[in-house]
Design a protein that fits this description.
By secondary structure, this protein is an all-alpha fold. The protein has one helix and no strands. Keywords: Cell membrane, Lipoprotein, Membrane, Palmitate, Signal.
Length: 48
Amino acid sequence: MVRKLWLVVLFGLVGLTAACNTIEGAGRDIRNTGDAISDGARDVKNKL
């Protein structure tokens, strides 16, 4: 019984670690998208 509990805890921790990496990656993607939008707006402004 204790061994099964440790396995559940272990898999839970692995899942949390994976979720943190996913959230960090999503944050980078959102930041890169915002940078691209800002660069595009700046280019349009400079052409006017």
